[in-house]
Write a structure and sequence with these properties.
Layout lengths: L10 H4 L7 H20 L3 H6 L1 H10 L7 E4 L6 H6 L37 H14 L7 E6 L6 H10 L7 E7 L10 H10 L2 H21 L4 H14 L8 H7 L3 E7 L3 H11 L6 E6 L36 E5 H15 L3 E5 L3 H4 L1 H7 L4 E3 L4 H13 L3 E7 H4 L3 H9 L6 E5 L16 H6 L5 E3 L4 H12 L5 E4 L4 E3 L15 E4 L5 E4 L4 H15 L4 E4 L2 E3 L3 H10 L3 E8 L4 H11 L7 E6 L9 H7 L4 H11 L16 E3 L3
Parallel strand pairs: 1-2, 2-3, 3-5, 4-5, 7-8, 7-9, 9-10, 10-12, 11-12, 15-16, 15-18, 18-19
Antiparallel strand pairs: 6-13, 11-17, 14-16, 19-20
Helix pairs in contact: 4-12, 6-7, 9-10, 13-20, 16-18, 21-25
Length: about 650
């Protein structure tokens, strides 16, 4: 079935094929990805299918291991690249625990220069490589960035575009993979600009005239040297008057780039010709390719989100245990959507904002009901926060919903636009904690640290669906900015009875005990409940369990009493230890001159956690119920009493010994 693909174990094998064989290879590669991703592993399907011919052409034209360099923006379109660079045999492990990453990863291959999962970063990196090549006299090397039209809207990408256009004599190629989509359809003025151009027949005709003239000049001169390049610049400048305002080349050429295109991004021959021509230009080049996201997968079925991602087959996850015993309720994201709809129906001043994550945050559903009150600002988290400030100052009540890992891109705006002037915006941090298959670039395990350092900021995390709804109502009425963090997980199916209502900085005692206390934050409450119940069954020890509710401000009164009266106190959080919830409790204990040696922080060690199912990665860091119980047993001197041994090196650390 995969006659050509089975012969490709490296780009060197690819280069042995004839150009006319490459379309057949593309068909086989597309079929292999669809079968693997849709049928088993799950993953970012649409983007890779759209960039498939481009991937083949780049590897056919360049030497991308240690000579030329390639940076994929976001990186989720790298599946064809992985298959062409010797990873076909391991592709069945994609996004699985200890398997291949769904993003580029230098640990996997020398063809992966960087580990990317956030958008808008490629142009800066590739420009830096190009300048370094020039500084070292390595002018035979080309530095390439592949960026989508959705990611081009990101602030860093525009900054790099501005910087790079001022450079000369660089072997720097920007491939604009124009498919009209991020996760969903691209939004904003740039997206509209490209969209108008795609339907411009006037430009199509003018473009053909320009290409003819360039070809004639090339044939007459035999090269694209500096003198010829200057002539071409003048010729193209004169032809701009023939082109409508929708011509995208005007934008790039005014910034100093040589613009080439647009070309059919699914025609390998056209791409190879374009790459050969671009190599002759002695300054940064923008190659504009038009592609279709999800090409080859259900082309006859319209899909607003172009089959962005496929779910992992249950065959790969059925053997895994439940995350905690009471799991099984709706996802936290579903609860967020349900509550947002309720709030917006009740209060016409409430609006919602996201940054290219309408589908992921669930706001796509809300937008269907409140089209003029849901704003997708594109891949621009910094702007999202600044925009939220303006909405609030203008008299509205904004909810800013952004993944935890992406919100960290807007730390300066969180500082100046919100915290500095106590601007009360409610931040909804989805995917806080370990996200599972997307791995290190998407794990939201730093938000407590980057938010808690800011004065005037309230941080909270719900233990279940009912508490999350209460926090959303309560947080919108605060006079300071507040953040609610919640995981990419299901809520508890069988909730504990609800206690007293929310009060700023007040925790909730869920269970009394004399043998120690466990203070759990947010997503870890029900995991901790399972753990303390296990310990009581195994050893007859009864530990108190506290739902922290707030990471800032802390319930200092309750925590002080626990540290004074209990023999040992554990804090548990789905976050890195450094700068996290437990760290804040330890700092408080130190300030209050309490016996901080009683504190034990259960959190994620000072490292990045790779991909796997959520259950598997929680087990790896010791934050599953059994891992939590093992850590507590070890510290309490109970380890081994039940005949159990540790399954892993657990991520724990005491405040003092």
């Amino acid at each position: 079935m995969y006659e050509l693909l089975n012969t490709i174990n490296s780009p060197e094998d690819l280069k042995q094929l004839k150009r006319e064989e490459l379309p057949k290879l593309a068909d086989e590669l597309r079929a292999f990805i669809i079968d693997s991703v849709v049928g088993m592993t799950g993953g970012h399907l649409g983007s890779g299918l759209g960039a498939l011919e481009l991937s083949i052409a780049l590897h056919y034209q360049y030497k991308l291991d240690c000579h030329d360099s390639l940076v994929w923006d976001v990186g989720h379109q790298c599946y064809p690249h992985k298959l062409l660079t010797g990873r076909r045999a391991d592709f069945s492990t994609l996004r699985q625990y200890k398997g291949l990453s769904g993003f580029p990863d230098p640990k996997e291959s020398c063809y992966d220069k960087v580990k990317t999962g956030h958008g808008g970063t490629s142009l800066s990196t590739a420009l830096g490589v190009a300048v370094a090549n020039k500084a070292q006299g390595l002018m035979d090397r080309t530095s390439i960035a592949v960026i989508g039209d959705g990611a081009l809207q990101e602030g860093q990408a525009l900054e790099a575009l501005n910087h790079g256009g001022d450079m000369r004599d660089l072997k720097y190629l920007i491939v604009l993979n124009d498919n009209e989509h991020g996760i969903g359809p691209a939004t904003g003025a740039l997206a509209n600009y490209f969209s108008r151009f795609r339907t411009s027949h006037a430009y199509t005709s003018a473009k053909k005239d320009v290409k003819k003239m360039l070809k004639v000049l090339e044939e007459q001169t035999g090269s694209f040297g500096r003198a010829v390049h200057d002539v071409l610049d003048h010729v193209k400048a004169g032809l701009h008057g023939l082109m409508p305002a929708t011509h995208p080349g005007v934008l790039f050429e005014e910034l100093g780039y040589f613009y080439y295109g647009p070309i059919d991004g699914h025609d390998i021959g056209q791409i190879l010709d374009a790459l050969e021509n671009a190599a002759r230009v002695p300054k940064p080049v923008v190659l504009h390719v038009l592609t279709k996201k999800g090409k080859g997968f259900k082309d006859d079925v319209p899909d607003h989100y172009a089959y962005h991602a496929a779910k992992t087959s249950k065959k790969l996850t059925d053997h895994l245990p439940k995350e905690f015993s009471r799991a099984g309720g709706p996802t936290y994201t579903d609860i967020f959507v349900e509550k947002t709809l309720e709030i917006m129906k009740r209060d016409e001043k409430v609006v919602a904002i996201t940054a290219a994550m309408l589908q992921g945050t669930g706001l796509e559903i809300v937008q269907k009901t409140f089209a003029d009150r849901v704003f997708d600002v594109g891949m621009a988290e910094q702007h999202a926060v600044g925009f939220a400030q303006g909405l609030k100052l203008g008299g509205l009540k904004p909810i800013c919903a952004v993944y935890s890992t992406f919100m960290q891109r807007s730390v300066d705006q969180l500082f100046q636009e919100l915290a500095l002037i106590k601007c009360p915006v409610l931040l909804a941090l989805d995917r806080a904690g370990l996200v599972g298959p997307d791995g290190a670039t998407h794990n939201g395990v730093f938000d407590i640290a980057y938010l808690s350092m800011l004065p005037n900021m309230v941080l909270m995390a719900p233990r279940d669906a009912t508490e999350m709804k209460a926090m959303m109502d309560w947080g919108l009425e605060l006079s300071v900015p507040a953040a609610i963090r919640f995981p990419r997980a299901n809520t508890p199916k069988n909730e504990l009875p609800q206690g007293l209502g929310l009060e700023l900085g007040k925790a909730e005692v869920l269970r009394e005990g004399e043998d120690g206390a466990v203070i759990a934050y947010g997503s870890m409450v029900y995991h901790a409940l399972d753990a303390v119940e296990k310990i009581e069954v195994r050893h007859g020890k009864k530990l108190a369990l506290i739902n922290a509710r707030f990471a800032k401000p802390l319930d200092e009164g309750l925590f002080a009493r626990l540290i004074e009266k209990q023999p040992i106190v554990f804090t548990i959080e789905e976050h890195v230890r450094r700068g996290g919830f437990g760290s804040s409790v330890l700092e408080f204990a130190n300030r209050a001159r309490l016996e901080s040696g009683k504190l034990e922080i259960l959190a994620i060690d000072d490292r990045f956690v790779d991909h796997g199912s959520r259950v598997e990665v929680l087990q790896e860091v010791g934050l599953d119920p059994e891992g939590i119980a093992a850590s507590i047993e070890r510290r309490m001197g109970l380890r081994g009493a039940s005949g159990e041994t540790s399954r892993r090196s657990v991520a724990t650390g005491s405040a003092a010994r």
